[in-house]
Write a structure and sequence with these properties.
The complex is a heterodimer of chains A (about 350) and B (about 550). With about 350 residues, chain A is of the alpha/beta class. Chain A is about 25% helix and about 25% strand. In chain A, the strands form 3 sheets. A 7-stranded mixed β-sheet of chain A has the order 7-8-9-10-11-17-18, covered by helices on one side. In chain A, a hairpin with a 2-residue loop joins strand 1 and strand 2. The two termini of chain B are about 50 Å apart. The chains are: A alpha/beta (about 350), B alpha+beta (about 550). Chains A and B meet through helix 6 and helix 8 of A and helix 5 and helix 6 of B.
């Protein structure tokens, strides 16, 4: 077996290069696909990540030994040629391309194939073996065009503002919130009212701006007088739901932006007024087209709908298998958001 | 369909009763009477017979979606709802038509009994002209109705406010409206909201059942017990016997006509209706129970009888039923629900005495001096095969449904039996709990004898009693401790202990544990207990002995 990546208890490991990719336990050398907390964990000796991920990584992991790379830049380590390529998931998210002895492997991390104004689009990288996520790897998951989702979101916000009611939109503080801000700006919705961000979101907005991403003006709650809040859109992490922090908004309408909102059961479980189906992961057609575009004959699935995707890929004549990993965006992100909540 | 789909989306999207009421009234204001007739039917809980067999419907959906059967099954497991799964996987529609709800119901009814290839062709054509919400609802209608978080009471209110009439009138007219074989048309809807009182009521209509609230506070707070009428809370089927114009109707609380299931009561009612005294009209409220050797038998006995398609003479002989009468709603053709409880009771006692028939028994009043005496006697409930006491204020009128403010009727039930059990299997839930492991199988320890290792024996399934937050926590544990997956079911390494409550317990040769429990539910999560500390089969057997009356089913 000359596999370029194997699953070890610490994480995905590249034996010839002697480094890990997105390890979930502390290791000597870690290549990080993106800064969501289930992929970027604390405690490793040396980190390698895409340049645009640096600001967020420093917020979350503090003063780490970090080596930054640009997309497409190549470094050679123990004979393994390593380069990073856009994954379209969040700012600074990268696929990791490994080449050794004429064989190419790509580790996708998390990715999406839909456009996102806050990060460069997913780029298909030809390889022999593709290690893919499969968060939404079932045919039920097919996303609407994002501009339609933002138009719905703007209509909801506008109706609330006209009724003198604040709009509270829950979304991941890192990635989703910034995509929503840019998406609503592109939908021409920023005249409806002020954009207010929870402290955990605002910290990340600033990181995006420092990295050169253009976002519309956002405010902290304390910057606005109560009257302005009644027409405002408030972006808050899901962990803020049900907390006293929300009391200041009086009567408000609430919504959640997530791919999980596609299912009626998930919407009703949260007992929210609206669920907007907006995901930073590839949907079923997106996963299929991404996998096909790599030309890989062997595909390994790391997380999400592993078993159905493996079976489906095998039916397509590919060699497919699953890796046992500890990637869980929901749990890890809510912990990270709680940690930065003091920054409100 | 589009108006109804919009209404559905609005109802589904909000948890506010005010908002739901407003949405319903908006719909009734614009819908045609024919469409509103069916909307009322479905929203009030009507479930027509399924018009396409499930298996054929699934095959057509899988074919149209272009999926392998196994992949569709995976999708269904993730979604937890068949109609929603299909709506997600079908290819986009090609056109859209303004066909209304009533026309859709008519179209779908043509599918019943049609040849499979005809059904297939029509389904494909229908799906091609419906958007996501339309398809979802259409599939729900084929499957026989749906739930949307609207109570019958709320529909009643919306109709009453829409038509500016008394909600009680609407409630009365709605009885029987949602019968499985009903085909409500524009005339039925017009009659439902007509201004005049009883112009369209059929002679067989019962009254809306008055329902009791569970007593959650101290019984002493009800004041002097002499002001209350106390009866056993029977564990049978609540029913109204309507005898009018020489005919008889027996209605269950689900407003289902059950006359045919209980021919002996039907025959009694017929005799009553044809007797001189009652010809003008008599309506009795009571409980149907299996009665033998001067006592009520456990509900399980009644259940075996209900589940039979054909009632053989032998069944009628081994499980004879009686109506335990506890209220009189119509006397000599007059609605007496406004009379105080004690006056209705006096009329009822006279009626039962005069009838002098073993099939009609009075539910006796229990008269004791103090609430303490009642509490003491209530301890015997289980042995007597009852669920506790019913408390009825002696001067109360007979209300409609479960009214909030009125503390006229209370059910003072005994605490459920309970054991601590370990979670051993989990299955994903449906509807609101889709994709979460929320349906559990529980086990207790069985000791196979000296020298044998004890093992966990499954004995009950339960899926209610936890908060959403707890379900999410349990779900996470299940995913981490999974040992094996069998389709939608996972076996886990037992790590969690829950206190399970249930209403009744009896021996059952069909269960591995040899025991069957009724209405099992989770009372609380025993964070403080390890699996080794879960209860044993011996403790269940002790409850069985305590229950005493339980017979082998």
């Amino acid at each position: 077996m000359n596999d370029l990546v194997v699953a070890r208890p610490e994480g995905l490991y590249c034996p010839p290069g002697d480094f890990y990719i997105d390890p979930w336990r502390p290791v000597a050398r870690a290549v990080i696909t993106h800064a969501h907390s289930d992929h970027a964990r604390a405690g490793s000796g040396h980190y390698v990540a895409m340049r645009d991920a640096e600001a967020v990584l420093r917020i979350r992991l503090g003063n780490i030994d970090l080596q930054s790379m640009d997309y497409g830049e190549r470094i050679v380590h123990h004979g393994v040629t390593l380069s990073l390529h856009p994954a379209g998931h969040v700012l600074g998210s990268a696929q990791v391309r490994l080449e050794h002895g004429g064989v190419v492997w790509v580790v996708s991390g998390d990715y999406k194939t839909q456009p996102d104004p806050t990060c460069p689009p997913f780029e298909a990288v030809r390889c022999d073996t593709f290690i893919s996520e499969s968060t939404f790897g079932l045919p039920i998951y097919r996303w609407q065009a994002p501009e339609d989702v933002f138009a719905d979101m703007a209509a909801w916000w506008r109706a609330n503002a006209q009724a003198g009611r604040a709009s509270v939109l829950y979304c991941y503080a890192f990635g989703k919130a910034q995509r929503v801000l840019a998406g609503l700006r592109d939908a021409g919705a920023t005249d409806i009212g002020a954009l207010v961000c929870h402290g955990a979101v605002q910290v990340l907005n600033d990181a995006y701006r420092r990295t050169g991403v253009d976002l519309p003006a956002t405010h902290r709650v304390s910057d606005l007088d109560p009257a302005a809040l009644r027409s405002a859109l408030i972006l808050a992490p899901p962990s803020a739901a049900g907390t006293p922090w929300l009391r200041r908004f009086g009567q408000f309408s609430d919504a959640f932006a997530s791919g999980w909102m596609l299912l009626r059961g998930a919407r009703r479980r949260r007992a929210l007024d609206r669920g907007f189906v907006l995901s930073d992961h590839a949907d079923w057609p997106g996963l299929q087209s991404a996998i096909a575009a790599t030309g890989a004959q062997r595909v390994i699935i790391t997380h999400g709908q592993v078993a159905p995707m493996v079976r489906w890929l095998e039916q397509q004549g590919l060699q497919a298998a699953g890796f046992d990993t500890e990637y869980d965006e929901d749990a890890a992100e809510s912990a990270a958001e709680s940690a930065t909540e003091s920054g409100r | 369909m589009r108006d109804f789909a919009r209404l559905y989306v609005e109802l589904d999207a909000t948890t506010s009763t005010t908002a739901k009421l407003a949405a319903l009234k908006r719909y009734f204001a614009v819908a045609s009477a024919a469409d509103a007739a069916w909307a009322t039917y479905f929203l009030a809980g009507g479930r027509p017979r399924q018009s396409v067999p499930s298996r054929l419907l699934r095959e057509c959906a899988v074919e149209r979606a272009g999926l392998d059967a196994w992949l569709f099954e995976e999708c269904y497991q993730a979604v937890g709802d068949f109609a929603e799964t299909v709506a997600h996987v079908l290819p986009p529609p090609r056109s859209s038509t303004p066909t209304g709800l009533a026309d859709w119901v008519a179209r779908l009814s043509t599918l019943r009994g049609a040849a499979p290839d005809v059904i297939r062709e029509r389904l494909f054509a229908y799906w091609d002209e419906l958007d996501w919400n339309g398809r979802f609802l259409m599939l729900k209608l084929i499957g026989g109705g749906f739930r949307v978080g609207v109570s019958r009471l709320l529909v009643t209110r919306a109709l009453a406010e829409h038509a500016a009439i008394d909600p009680k009138t609407v409630a009365h007219r709605l009885i029987g409206y949602t019968h499985i074989a009903a085909r409500p048309d524009s005339g039925a809807f017009t009659a439902l909201i007509a201004p005049d009182a009883d112009a369209h009521a059929s002679p067989g209509h019962p009254y809306p059942f008055f329902l009791a609230h569970p007593l959650l506070r101290e019984v002493a707070t009800l004041g002097d017990c002499a002001r209350w009428m106390v009866e056993w809370k029977w564990d049978g089927i609540r029913a109204q016997l309507v005898a009018r114009q020489g005919r008889c109707w027996l209605w269950s609380r689900g407003e289902e006509l059950v006359s045919e299931r209980f021919p002996e009561l039907d025959a009694f009612g017929l005799a009553l209706a044809q007797g001189a005294a009652a010809r003008a009209g008599t309506v009795i409220d009571g409980e149907i129970v299996v009665w033998k050797d001067d006592r009520a038998l456990p509900f399980a006995q009644l259940q075996t009888r209900i589940s039979r398609k054909v009632l053989t003479p032998r069944i009628l002989q081994t499980t004879p039923v009686v109506l335990l009468a506890y209220d009189l709603l119509e006397h000599a053709g007059k609605d007496v629900r406004h009379l105080p409880q004690f006056e209705r009771r006096a009329l009822l006692e006279t009626l039962v005495r005069d009838a002098d028939d073993p099939r009609l028994r009075i539910s006796p009043l229990i008269e004791l001096a103090t609430w303490e005496d009642y509490a003491l006697l209530r301890e015997q409930s289980r042995r007597r095969g009852v669920e506790g006491f019913m408390l009825k204020r002696h001067d109360s009128t007979y209300g409609v449904g479960r009214t909030k403010e009125d503390g006229a009727w209370w059910k003072w039930k005994i605490d459920p039996m309970s054991v601590d059990a370990a979670l051993v299997y989990a299955q994903r839930g449906h509807g609101r709990r889709a994709s979460l492991y929320s349906d559990y199988t529980f086990a207790v320890w069985a000791d196979d004898g000296v020298g044998q290792e004890r093992r966990l024996v499954p004995f009950a399934k339960a899926y209610s009693g936890l908060t959403d937050e707890e379900i999410a926590q349990v779900d996470a544990v299940i995913r981490k401790t999974t040992v094996e997956k069998f389709g939608p079911v996972r076996s886990v390494t037992p790590t969690l202990v829950f206190e399970l409550g249930f209403e009744a317990i009896q021996r059952s040769p069909r269960h591995k544990s040899g025991i069957a429990v009724r209405f099992p539910r989770i009372l609380r999560w025993r964070h403080d207990k390890a699996v080794a500390e879960a209860d044993t089969l011996a403790s269940l057997n002790a409850l069985l002995d305590e229950a005493g009356s339980a017979q082998p089913g």
